[in-house]
Specification:
Layout (H helix, E strand, L loop, with lengths): L1 E4 L5 H9 L3 E4 L17 E4 L6 H6 L5 E4 L9 H6 L3 E3 L6 H17 L1 H9 L5 H4 L10 E5 L3 H12 L3 E5 L6 H10 L2 E3 L2 H6 L3 E4 L13 H7 L2 E5 L8 H9 L3 E5 L23 E3 L8 H19 L18
InterPro entries: D-2-hydroxyacid_DH, D-isomer_2_OHA_DH_cat_dom, D-isomer_DH_NAD-bd, NAD(P)-bd_dom_sf
Organism: uncultured Nocardioidaceae bacterium
Keywords: NAD, Oxidoreductase
Length: about 325
């Protein structure tokens, strides 16, 4: 098969696929704008951060499979892929620990004002008086978790080690293993999101972007949370941006964000965001999954998905094109 890898992935991805007699092109500098020109004749497209637009899908005359090197597929126009008979697959769960680690890092950074303190030191200013007064501490604080999948549970385990009290949003059904971990961690389940926000000091979001989660955290939820901290390492669209900005402006909330509305469709770009520039926000560049450990795990998952597809097996497919072929 002809495979285009349009983002930087560990070298062993191409090595393994080439050893299986696939033709592999590595073009990690492609962007959403230039990708349509590169997909002609390609059977399989592998992306991580690069957006796959409808133009790309329509320009790909031979494309049968798009593999997202990660869990979320909202950067891929899955509707257009479905219409064009193109399968979309992901690699879920491989980055859970990395995202959980960043979530805790953002929480500590917000609580102790670590970025501001670092900036003052780099500017040659010593202000122990100011920064001695900012941290509330984590022990005994209440953490509300929205989304108890692999990432949410990994966050819960780490927060428990800090002595935080754990509360989470209930949902209809869970696996036996998830239920066991919830019981072992002593997580209390609450059926209503507003009620959950009202009783916690920190609210952390770990849900995929879908019809039922877009705008999930709106003004009512944020009003219930204040004063507190919002952490979002899932997708920006889960939160009402204007409502969040209003709470940040009035000083009732702080936030740790790894995701932002209208993020650039490439790895580097000039970009401005009122959220990213806000003094009550600690932000990172959508790097939750960007550790060496996580990327190695994701890369292995990509190889498994492509290898299975080459053998006629579909793995982790998230759409159902009526005309898609299941084998090369």
């Amino acid at each position: 098969m002809r495979i285009l890898v349009a983002d930087k992935l560990p070298a062993h991805v191409a090595d393994t696929l080439r050893a299986a007699r696939h033709e592999v092109r590595l073009e990690p500098d492609l962007t959403a704008a230039t990708l349509p020109e590169a997909v002609g004749g390609v059977d399989v497209l592998v992306v991580r951060s690069t957006k796959v637009t409808a133009d790309t899908v329509r320009a790909a005359d031979a494309l049968r499979l798009v593999v997202r090197a990660g869990s979320g597929t909202d950067t891929i126009d899955c509707d257009e892929a479905t219409r064009c008979g193109v399968l979309v697959a992901n690699v879920p769960g491989a980055n859970a620990l990395a995202v959980a680690e960043l979530t805790m890092g953002l929480l500590l950074a917000v609580d102790r004002a670590i970025p501001d303190a670092t900036a003052e030191l780099r500017a040659g200013r010593w202000d122990k008086k100011r920064f001695s007064a900012v941290g509330r501490g984590l022990h005994g604080r209440r953490l509300g978790i929205v989304g108890l999948g692999g990432i949410g549970l990994a966050v819960a385990e780490r927060a428990a080690a800090f002595g935080m009290s754990l509360v989470a949003l209930e949902k209809g059904s869970r696996s036996a293993e998830a239920s066991r971990r919830i019981d072992a961690l002593g997580i209390r389940l609450v059926p209503d999101l507003v009620a959950l926000a009202a009783e916690v000091d920190v609210l952390t979001l770990h849900v995929p972007l879908a019809t039922g989660t877009e705008g999930l955290v709106g003004a009512e939820v944020l009003d219930a949370l204040q004063p507190g901290i919002l952490l979002n390492t899932s997708r920006a669209e889960v939160v009402d941006t204007e409502a969040l900005l209003a709470r940040l402006d009035d000083g009732s909330l702080s936030a740790g964000l790894d995701v932002f509305p209208d993020e650039p469709g490439s790895g580097t770009a000039e970009w401005r965001s009122p959220l990213a520039a806000h003094p009550r926000v600690v932000g990172t560049h959508h790097i939750g999954a960007s550790t060496e450990q996580a990327q190695d795990a994701v890369a292995r998952g990509v190889v498994e998905v492509v290898t299975a597809f080459a053998g006629g097996e579909l793995r982790n497919v998230v759409n159902q094109p009526a005309t898609a072929e299941s084998a090369p």
